[in-house]
Queue: 2 jobs
Job 1
Amino acid sequence: MCDCAEETKGGKGLLMVFTGNGKGKTTAAIGLAMRAVGHGFRVCFIQFIKGSWRSGEQETMGRFRGRIDFHVMGRGFTWKSDDLEKDRRAARAAWDKAREAIFSGKYQMVILDEFTYLLSYKMVDRDEALGVFSKKPQGLHVVITGRDALPELVDMADLVTEMREVRHPYKNGIRAQKGIEY
Ligand code: ATP
Ligand code: MG
């Protein structure tokens, strides 16, 4: 593995958004992490919301300790609103972790997987979040995934890809599968 992360310094760090209803947003972010780490980048991958099962990516990234810091934050706060205050605290903690990673100077890439929901459910203040993204370190790549990205976020991003669903096996009653969905 080469150690050429220094090359990103002075380069143009991008704000990238993977959104839309089709499958592939999180897997695209995982792909970027794999590509970046191969060039010696240090990556921080923060997964919001999901927290109940252990995903394949969590296992894989665990093998890149020292290169990829992987965090799962939250507890399904968008649809299990049995305790809204607890959800808010979890979202807050996740956002604090994200902000810290962005300004830490430790990473060349910070990935906020499923972050769009924190904004659409107003768990994180929109202006504050957009302010952080607009002031991110110049050379840092930030990747945000999730459905329904806010128009303001889409406007400020350097790269936006919308995954469009053409067909999904779920429609034929095929449940989430290991190695494919998680
Ligand atoms: P992936 O993690 O596979 O890249 P994703 O990040 O694009 O998917 P999410 O919106 O985060 O998709 O959805 C999480 C899960 O829902 C994934 O396991 C995905 O396969 C599934 N999913 C995505 N699109 C659909 C759909 N149109 N109908 C049903 N399930 C879907
Ligand atoms: Mg996803």
Job 2
Amino acid sequence: MSQSLTGAGKVAGVVGAPVRHSLSPLIHNAWIAGAGLDAAYVPFSPPATGFKALVEGFRGGAVCGLNVTLPFKEEALALADAPSAAAQAAGAANLLLFREDGRILADNTDGTGLLAAFAQQAPGFDPAAAPVVILGAGGAARGAAAAFLAAGVGEVRILNRTLARAEAIAVSLGDRVSPLALHQAEQAFTGAGAVINATSAGLSGDGGLDVPLAATPADCVVMDMVYKPLRTPFLAQAETEGRRTVDGLAMLIGQAVPSFTAFFGVSPPSGVDVRALALKTLGLSERI
Ligand code: NAP
């Protein structure tokens, strides 16, 4: 939060349930302070049935915008008057902007964040060079598939525990998407340029996915969207196999950048190391 918040200050926030452990307030408020903005970024956690009332209450611009996290991303898209192409392709919105004329714009910056994370932590990675494998078929997987298709990938292989959900993504995103079952991982990993865990397996230290990352090519990049813990069992296995890795915190910060710009009309200040702040909050060393 800005140290000099006035009545004219801009307010944005994040809405989710739960939202208590979200790192977004830490990231955005550090950028607000670094840029010296008259602004604040606050967490909102409505009851499961209260999301619509909260969003409708902000219509007209009392709050300039919201990031949206689980479980409200699909509902956020449905409530918007003007969804972006990225939000429509993802079937979910992680960003709502409240215009003074009463309209609500929806966007999805998760795909931008994902590609930014690859650019930062796997320099030289070319999303169009080889098939990309996505594990999972929830909103995050759908958004990742849409982002890679927009970046020119020739084939996205979506593997899910529940095959029907992978098939549904293929139906909506087109014939460059191949749906497969999780037990077909070895086949799917052959020739892959990247493998991304977009399941919630591995979250909060559970066992994670049991997939044969050794079957990926030596130059395959392995990414996990989960960032608690940051070094998930999945990324640990990838490192053991000698693969380059990309972590979920880089994606979280990557999706926050365009959100901040959309809220406050300026880019995040370059001198604020929000990754170091987030690592400290997670109780981790800055060298990770
Ligand atoms: P979601 O809609 O709930 O989807 C969860 C997916 O995980 C489904 O495909 C589900 O398979 C699969 N899954 C859950 N437990 C599994 C297990 N034990 N074994 C195999 N598959 C399992 O969630 P989402 O919104 O897509 O998010 C997925 C993950 O990405 C979450 O951990 C979320 O926190 C993370 N995420 C991170 C960022 C970031 O910025 N780093 C951004 C967005 C999301 P079924 O269909 O078979 O149930």
